[in-house]
Amino acid sequence: MSLPTLTTARLKLRQLVEADRESVVKVFSDPEMSRFFAADFSDPAAASGMVDRRLAYRGPAGQGHWVIERDGEVIGVAHLRPSSELPGGVPELGYYVGAAHAGQGLASEAARAVLDHGLDGLGLPAVWALVHENNAASRKVAGRLGFLDVGSGIHYGDLHRVLVALPATHGRPHHIELWVPDLAEAERSWGWLLGELGWREFQRWPDGVSWRLGATYLVVEASPAMSAAGHERTRPGLNHLALHVDTRAHVDDLATRAADHGWQPLFADMYPHAGGDAHYAAYLENDAGFEVELVALEGPAPAGPTTGS
Ligand SMILES: CC(C)(COP(=O)(O)OP(=O)(O)OC[C@H]1O[C@@H](n2cnc3c(N)ncnc32)[C@H](O)[C@@H]1OP(=O)(O)O)[C@@H](O)C(=O)NCCC(=O)NCCS
């Protein structure tokens, strides 16, 4: 299973391979590296065993173990993999930089790259970290990366802070505004669908209404400035809006019930794979001609666009 190479201003993070064993053992040869761990990885056999466990990783795509290289030299390791300590195997981040390279911001730089890969690249809803209560340097790294301290517990045999990093709103949709010919029809179809997906009414005025989910809201407005009678999804402009749904069963349920709320199925003969074999989605169109796609991301996400019309 291959991991992407992550590049930063000073570092290259690439997938750990067997040929890195000796370099990694060397990084951990300073007993200071193991100060906050239950095992002493300055013992080459212990460090080599740790490399074995890392090489044996078989988990979700895009997660795993990297070496941290600076100018071609392995100076540390980093990981993002399902936690063995936290419930549900949530993704857990870890970072280790050799003592000879400490104090230059390199762990922060490497950990930032892995965190961004997890939250922005893989679209994980959260990334977790467990940091020994007395590991001040690591707590500083995590704090700098925006990790929130949500408590403490006994993990890896000792008291650890439990930290979580959540996706930032930067660069994400703030709101989406749809101009609709018939506000009542839009409320009936969009209001029902968004309500089913957890959106809540946010704003209301004579010509419009909006619903919000988290930091994003969607507006439907029958604007007096509208310059055409209706929406046509095959014309330039918005073709469709695609929304995440938590499970395939939920997509099935919404697709079935949508007919009672102003939505007709599109590409019904290919349901649920009109977007491709690996893509599970319902395509619906309301009376005003707006198309919505309800997508359940279970298993690896396909590359590229998922529908042509
Ligand atoms: C913890 C570790 C990753 C830090 O690596 P690093 O490259 O030195 O980290 P950075 O330089 O990015 O940041 C460390 C920060 O902690 C500060 N720091 C270091 N030792 C400290 C201490 N004892 N008390 C308080 N702050 C300390 C540094 O000054 C630096 O802050 P600054 O940039 O504001 O000066 C590295 O020492 C290490 O690998 N340790 C062993 C393994 C480990 O504990 N990993 C973390 C597992 S959760």
From TrEMBL:
PANTHER family: GNAT FAMILY, PUTATIVE (AFU_ORTHOLOGUE AFUA_3G00765)-RELATED-RELATED, N-ACETYLTRANSFERASE DOMAIN-CONTAINING PROTEIN. Residues 172-297 form the VOC domain. This is GNAT family N-acetyltransferase. It holds the Pfam family Acetyltransf_3. Residues 11-169 form the N-acetyltransferase domain. InterPro entries: Acyl_CoA_acyltransferase, Glyas_Bleomycin-R_OHBP_Dase, GNAT_dom, N-acetyltransferase, VOC_core.
